[in-house]
Each structure stands twice: as structure tokens, then as C-alpha cells.
Write a structure and sequence with these properties.
The radius of gyration is 23 Å and the shape is globular. The chain has nine helices and twelve strands. Helix 4 (95-108) runs antiparallel to helix 6 (162-177). It has a seven-stranded mixed β-sheet with strand order 1-2-3-4-5-7-6, with helices on both faces. It has a five-stranded antiparallel β-sheet with strand order 8-10-11-12-9. The longest helix has 16 residues, at 162-177. The protein has helices spanning 14-21, 24-27, 38-49, 95-108, 125-133, 162-177, 199-209, 219-224, 234-247, and strands at 5-8, 55-61, 64-72, 80-87, 115-121, 137-148, 151-161, 190-196, 255-263, 272-283, 286-295, 298-308. The chain has 315 residues and is of the alpha+beta class. The mean pLDDT is 93. The chain has two domains: 5-177, 3-Layer(aba) Sandwich (Aminopeptidase), CATH 3.40.630.30; 190-313, Hotdog Thioesterase (Thiol Ester Dehydrase, Chain A).
């Protein structure tokens, strides 16, 4: 598939764009998820094309329209913009990555923004991971900020900065697009390792950390707190990520730059747990990975780690 190009959206594109926008797989992930009427669509077009903070584009591959890319809240060169996209062509492999690369080139090139942002609804985890693979980073999560059919959902806010795009992200993404690749690239790699949360291990962690909360060692205290049995320290679970990242995968010399985590379920003392680390993207020396601690099929800790790997592992 060729790289594809952006061209300004024209009035002649409106029928096609409306048909794409009303596809269930598109609208179900939008803030406005009902079927858009032609009147609503026309009003959006008139409002958007006359807004100096908005740019509307068609993405074409081999001369044929394949998707829509929009920029909004554009504050001018060296400013900030928010972008979104959707594809109307589901038959070609790689359309999404081609659109993402085209949008990044335009944002940091022609628009000259300093920072490019996007928002993803929490149930659209596939797109969140997709953006992370292309170098975006999570800047924040707006908890319960969106309501649909009486159910509250989070909004994930992601961003990329021009300095990071120019330093390494552009080169790595273009290498991937050209299928040149890099043998050091860890993107997509998964490491899993079993962990035994023995009472001896939990006791040693309590002594080392000074956390003597009785719910970690006393069954009666644990039951009083609402647990069936003593539970391991949540931060102890995070320590397993650190141990694996710095010794086994990616390996010795790896440095932690940051970790966010959600504690979703307790881990009983004595449980057989499993650490799962999936590299979402590896750009230059920076690695962004999903980190999980599981017992059986239950995800007890879920989060993301940002790492700096040794120079020999750089892409």
C-alpha cells in the first residue's frame, strides 16, 4: 500500500463522509454516537469549514478516498491542536497506521504545532493502544467524564510533543512504514513470569518497607477489612515489575522513568501470580509497556511503565 496523502475536504465529499461517520464501528466510539442526519451533517460542515481552529481532510490512497482526518482547537504555529480520524476503508491492511503517520507529519509540519492531543473513550482500548504504539503518551484520565445510557466512562487524554517527534518518533515510524524495521525493536514483544507470593516473601517486604498493616499477615484483621484472607501489599506487586524490567526483560541496565497503575483486585498471600509485560512501542531508547499482575484470569494490577533501555538496545 502506498503512503497515502491528505487533501482538504470538499463539499463533494460530504455524502461519502456521512456514510462513513454513520457506520456502527465508527459512531459507537464517538461522543455523539447516534445516526447523524443529513441536516446535522450539513450544519457540522458549515460550522467547521468557517472555524479558523478547525482543519478537515480526506486521506487518499492511490487516488481513492480511504478516511477522514480532522484537527480542532488549533491555536496556530507553535501551539496546540486536537486530532481525530476514522477510516471508511476496512479492506486494506495498514490504513490506520498510514493515516496516523500522515496526520503526525501534517501536524508537526504544515501546522507546526508544539503539541498534538487526542481523546479516547475508555471502552475503546484498542485505539488507545494503537496511539501508544505510534509514540503518544497518556497525559491523564478524566474519571467518569462521559455518560452514555446512564453508564459513566473515563476519557483518556493522550499527547505527543514536536521535540519527541523530531528527535526519534518520525524516524522510527517511517522505518516501520517502509518495512525496514530494526532488529532491536521490542514493539509487540511480551514477557510473562510466574511469581509466588509466599507468606515469607510478604513478611520480608513488610520488614523492608516498614508497612506493618495487619491485613497483610493477620487473617482476622483481613476479614475485618472485607477480605477473605490476608492480602499482599499493592506496592509489592509493583516491585515485581521493577525486578523483571531491570533484570530479565528488557534486561540489565533498564531504568524506570515512570509507572502508573490501578489496583483492581486484591492478591491473597500464598497465591500463584503472573506478571505480564507487553511492549507497546520502542522508540529510540524509550520503551512504553503495559504492566499487569494477574491471579488466574483476574487482572489485579494494571498500568503502564515508561522505561529507558541501555544504548545498545536503542532503535
Amino acid at each position: 500500500m502506498s503512503a497515502g496523502v491528505l487533501r482538504p475536504m470538499a463539499e463533494a465529499d460530504l455524502d461519502r463522509v456521512l456514510a462513513w461517520r454513520n457506520l456502527q464501528q465508527v459512531r459507537e466510539n464517538m461522543y455523539t454516537h447516534h445516526v447523524i442526519s443529513s441536516q446535522e451533517h450539513r450544519a457540522w460542515w458549515e460550522r467547521s469549514r468557517n472555524d479558523p481552529a478547525v482543519r478537515l481532510f480526506m486521506f487518499e490512497v492511490d487516488g481513492a478516498p480511504a478516511g477522514v482526518i480532522t484537527f480542532s482547537r488549533y491555536s496556530g504555529p507553535d501551539g496546540i491542536a486536537t486530532w481525530a480520524f476514522y477510516s471508511g476503508d476496512t479492506s486494506r491492511r495498514g490504513i490506520g497506521s498510514a493515516m496516523e503517520l500522515a496526520a503526525l507529519r501534517h501536524a508537526f509540519g504544515e501546522l507546526g504545532v508544539r503539541k498534538l492531543e487526542c481523546e479516547v473513550l475508555s471502552f475503546n482500548d484498542k485505539v488507545t493502544v494503537f496511539h501508544l504504539k505510534h509514540g503518544f503518551r497518556v497525559e491523564g484520565i478524566f474519571r467518569d467524564a462521559y455518560v452514555r445510557d446512564g453508564v459513566h466512562h473515563d476519557i483518556w487524554r493522550l499527547a505527543m510533543y514536536r521535540k519527541d517527534w523530531e528527535r526519534t518518533i518520525r524516524r522510527v515510524l517511517e522505518e516501520r512504514a517502509d518495512r525496514r524495521g530494526n532488529p532491536c525493536d521490542l514493539t509487540g514483544k511480551i514477557h510473562e513470569q510466574a511469581i509466588a507470593l509466599t507468606s515469607e516473601r510478604v513478611r520480608a517486604f513488610a520488614e523492608a518497607s516498614g508497612d506493618a498493616n495487619p491485613i497483610h499477615r493477620d487473617a482476622e484483621a483481613a476479614r475485618a477489612a472485607g477480605f477473605d484472607a490476608p492480602i499482599a501489599h499493592g506496592v509489592m506487586g509493583l516491585s515485581f515489575f521493577s525486578a523483571i524490567l531491570g533484570t530479565h526483560f528488557p534486561g540489565a541496565g533498564t531504568i524506570y522513568l515512570g509507572q502508573d497503575a490501578r489496583f483492581l483486585a486484591p492478591v491473597p498471600v500464598g497465591a500463584e501470580a503472573r506478571v505480564r509485560i507487553q511492549v507497546l512501542t520502542h522508540i529510540g531508547r524509550r520503551v512504553y509497556a503495559r504492566t499487569q499482575l494477574l491471579t488466574g484470569q483476574t487482572v489485579c494490577i494494571d498500568g503502564y511503565a515508561e522505561l529507558l533501555v541501555p544504548p545498545a538496545m536503542a532503535t
